[in-house]
Amino acid sequence: MKTETKFLMLFISLTGIFLLFISGCKKSDDPSPTPVTITDIDGNVYHTVTIGTQVWLVEDLKSTKYRDGTSIVQEIDNAAWSTLTTAAYCDYDNSTSNGATYGHLYNWFAVHDSRNICPSGWHVPSDAEWTTLTDFLGGKSVAGGKMKETGTAHWLSPNTGATDEVGFKALPGGERRATGQYIYLGEYGCWWSSTENDAQQAWIRYVGNSEVDVTNQLYNKNYGYSVRCIKD
C-alpha cells in the first residue's frame, strides 16, 4: 500500500511539472506586449500606455521627418505659414525648448501625408478613435480631467479636475493660428485627428486648464496643433 501511495504521489508531481511546462510554452506563443518605449526616426523616445482597448504614446510627437526619412518643412515665418497648402511644422514661439517640452505643432497637411508622420506601427488617430478614448473615460464631459497632467508645472492654474488617472499626461502645447500667431500655451492642449471635413477643415480635440471636458471641433487645416499617435 505504501509503495502504491508513493507511486501515486510521484505521478501527480510529475504531472504538475508537465502542466507547468506546457503552460509556460503557451505563454511564449502569445503576441508580444507593447514595448514600454518607442523611438521615432529622429531618435526621440516616447513612452506608451494602454487605455481600454487602445495603446497611445504618452508624449506628443516631436518628429521632423516622415517614417521614410523625408524631412518635414519647418516654417517660422507667419506670412508663409498662413498660405501653406503643404506639410509643415513649428515650435511654439519658434522656441526649440518649447518643442522639446510640448512637442512640435503641425499643420494638417503634415498629418494627412501618406508617408506617415508617426513611428512605424503607429498613426494619427481618427476622430472616431478619439471618441473611443473619451467614451472609455466616461464621455467628453469628464474625460479631459482624466487625461490632463496634474499640477501646474506646465498647465496654468487652476488646471481644473486634473487627475491623469489613465497616464495620458496631456500637456497644454497651445496652437498656431492660420495667421501664424501663437496662442494658448499653458491654457489648451489641442490635437489633430486624421479626419477631414472638407477641403478647408479637419477635426481636432482640445482640453483647457479651466475645463474637465474634451471638445471636438472643426478647424482650418493651416492651424498648427499637437499630434498624439495611437498604435495600429
Strand order of the largest sheet: 1-2-3
From the spread of the alpha carbons, the general shape counts as globular
Percent strand equals 15-25%
Element-level helix/strand string: HEEEHEHEHEHHEEEEEE
**C-alpha Rg, in Å?**
23 Å
The total tally of domains equals 2
Strand tally: 12
- The termini sit apart by 62 Å
Helical amount: 25-40%
The helix tally amounts to: 6
Keywords, separated by commas or semicolons:
232 residues; alpha+beta; 2 domains; three-stranded antiparallel sheet; disordered N terminus
Characterization of the model:
The protein contains 6 helices and 12 strands. The chain is α+β, with helices and mostly antiparallel strands. The strands form 5 sheets. It has a 3-stranded antiparallel β-sheet. A 3-stranded antiparallel β-sheet has the order 9-10-11. Strands 4-5 form a two-stranded antiparallel ribbon. A hairpin with a 5-residue loop joins strand 1 and strand 2. The longest helix is centred in the N-terminal third of the chain and has 27 residues. It starts with a helix and ends with a strand. 36% of the residues are buried.
List the helices and strands and how they pair.
Blueprint: H1 2-28, E1 37-39, E2 45-51, E3 54-57, H2 78-82, E4 89-90, H3 96-102, E5 105-106, H4 108-112, E6 122-123, H5 127-136, H6 140-147, E7 175-176, E8 182-183, E9 188-196, E10 201-208, E11 215-220, E12 230-231
Antiparallel strand pairs: 1-2, 2-3, 4-5, 6-12, 7-8, 9-10, 10-11
Helix pairs in contact: 5-6
